[in-house]
Amino acid sequence: MSDINNTKDTTDVQPAQDATPALSSDEQTIQDGFNELLNDYLNSNHRRKVERITKAFNFANQAHAGVKRRSGEPYIMHPIAVARIVCREMGLGSTSICSALLHDVVEDTEYTVDDIRDMFGDKIAQIVDGLTKISGGIFGEKASAQAENFRKLLLTMSDDIRVILIKIADRLHNMRTLGSMLPAKQFKIAGETLYLYAPMAHRLGLFSIKTELEDLSFKYEHPQEYAFINLKLKATEETRKTLFEHFAVPVDVKLKAMGLNYEMRARVKSVYSIWNKMESKGVSFEDIYDIYAVRIIFDPLPGVDEKNQCWDIYSAITDIYRIRPDRIRDWVSRPKANGYQALHLTVMGPDGQWVEIQIRSRRMDEIAEKGFAAHWKYKEHNVEEDTELDKWLQTITEILESPDPNALDFLDTIKLNLFTSEIFVFTPKGDIKTLPQGATALDFAYALHSDIGNKCIGAKVNHRLVPLSHPLASGDQVEILTSRSQNPQPEWLNFVTTARARSKIDAFLKKARKEVAKNGELKVLEAFKKNELEVNAGNIDKLCMYFGFSKREEFFYAVERGDVILPENIKKLLKEKTDNVLFKYVKQALKVAAKVATKEDNEKKDAEEVKEKPKYDKKKPYVLKEEAFERNYVIADCCKPIPGDEALGFINDDGNVVVHKRSCPIAMRLKSSFGERILNTEWSSHHSSFEATLEIKGIDSMGVLNTITHTISDDFNVNIIRLLIEAKDGVFEGKVKMKVHDVEDIQRMCVVLSKIKNIKSVARIAD
User: Fold this and answer.
1) Which of the ends of the chain has fewer CB neighbours closer than 10 A, N or C?
2) pLDDT digits (tens, 9 = 90+) for 190-225
């Protein structure tokens, strides 16, 4: 949508020229793009509604006339590209194509949803309206956090699943054209794509789109690792080709003898998947054995069940090669919740390497790549999209309700990852309140109004009675129950999480405490009067000090509550204990005076330090500097980046820049929710050292520990902070925490240590 890559440059709008037969270069580009869209549509199995699509194109083209994208191309090329993805890569029909062409019209031009409804009907207007709301629209800047946008996206789900599919297509095109954006913007968009849109595409069975979204995100977030893995893939391409040919020859003979029409090809694991496995397993590129898999895609023989043919091919392959029994995956009999169907097996190839094989029918392959949208390809021609939609909606609903242990569960993603910092709760009338994760029914009561909170006696969550301490979850509908006789209790402070609720309870309790203390003060004054003692500050303070109270109000409160029992003869008590009391009093007074002086000094210091928060130019990289060991940034504790790491900056509430690794999970959440605070960073030269931890594994042998420590300390002049080594059954595993200057130190150390005899792996880990 236009909140990402579709930034418009209205300065490019040109006055209308007299019509001429020849098209301008921009007009020709637009016309060519639209013709390609029509060709995609005419090659599909959908009912031919070319006039409807042409009408939507002409309307959108006129609405966006003269406007350019940041890349310089006419703006209408973006809706055309999104419509082509919707048609060609998702298999949707005219309703979706028209909606994709019109998806930015309401948000970015003077036209309204009613205008769309008048020209194109209720269904397209509803979809465009849903897309506009997700993008921002009436919510404006308040909805800048992607988590909030995603919640709105989920709320539209019950209306029309096509809203989500077009939104994914929109994001895919934005990722394909992300190169024209500033680096800080690239990090934000790539981060939220990996965090939100790729799992969503996976959960809806859009495998090829999910893979492309992951790879494009990875390319912009980790360009060096992306380039490194690509080079490695190119360097090992010939070897893989040879391995595949050796494997394929006997299989080819066997399958042809079975009379099958099929294709067999090697599928290379995606760059992101390879990197993800390297990171999660702590292994090198060379240690990943399943970089490529063999895919066998067959056309079913007439009258033979697809499932049976999959097992026939399985039988043929296992007659040739030895199978690995623990790696059989039967998704033919029981498809994944996202519709994926295939039979996976792993065999020992002729070159002594494990080879994964994926057996699919042509239909299964289409569904694996395009998801449920692919089912239209297997319908008769002139399929009406709307009549088929109900069946698909039912399937999608089943997906969302059905847990799938073998894939990233869509609902769990929402519950566990997306709303880690906040939840969204509904009032009985359907209004939405945002609360922090872990908020209780009492927090919600105070979020509505302080009077409701003060009088709260319980709540109904989803029509079920719960106590005040009941923790809420996103999507809960909450009704607060109140009573006039209720007042806040001190124990309430133990189960509220919001600052608002805590401050309101504190304020009420302090006020109530003062009233109780007043009654206690009257009792003390009555006791003084009874003992014929002068009521003055000195005598009252002596009595407070005697009972161990530094503040009169606390003493009076304790008297009224009965925690302190005043003796009958106060005069005698004060006379006998005068020296001790005076000593205590002077000592306490000195403490109070010192505390006041310290407070004044701190306030003065704070006043001196209060400066206007620094402003950052996001168009330029923020240089991470160190002068006299003073840094202009803060190292994040979660990932502890060091100079040379691919990093980004996050501007915190104090205006300081906190530096995270780009791959840090916390940084991913920050990019998704606070993209406007992300900075592109560059390391400058540093003098000080940074903490880093290496994990070393190998064969246990005499002197290996001594060799490791000497290599690190002597060869690299590095200070070891902590060393933990554990040996068991002939192998050892150790962690070495040390001070280094930058990533190059670590990389050189890994190379040298890995060459030591009996050391099998060396990798940097997060400590």
Assistant:
1) C
2) 887 887 788 778 767 788 899 999 999 999 988 888
Question: Which residues form the catalytic set?
Answer: 107-108
Angle at 494 between CA 490 and CA 497, to 5 degrees: 120
Q: Place 718 in a pLDDT band, splitting at 50, 70 and 90.
A: confident
- Asked if residues 218 and 187 have their Cβ atoms less than 8 Å apart, the reply is no
Joined together, the tokens standing for residue 89 give 């890569």
Cα–Cα dist 576/599, whole Å: 36
In the numeric block, which tokens belong to residue 337?
């919740």
Average pLDDT along the chain: 78
Q: Which residue has the tokens 């940097």?
A: 764
Long-range contacts of 28-31 (CB under 8 A, 24+ apart): 29/73, 29/74, 29/77, 30/61, 30/74, 30/76, 30/77, 30/80
Structure tokens at 319: 């007659």
pTM > 0.90: no
User: The tokens of 612 are what?
Assistant: 């206007």
Task: Fill in the DSSP letter of residue 632.
Answer: S
**Contact criterion met (CB below 8 Å) for 212 and 172:** yes
Q: Is the pLDDT of residue 384 over 60?
A: no
Q: How many CB atoms lie within 10 A of CB 78?
A: 25
Of 461 and 395, the structure prediction assigns the larger pLDDT to: 461
Q: For residue 416, report the phi and psi dihedrals to the nearest 5 degrees.
A: -90, -35
Give 132's Cβ-side CA count (13 Å radius): 22
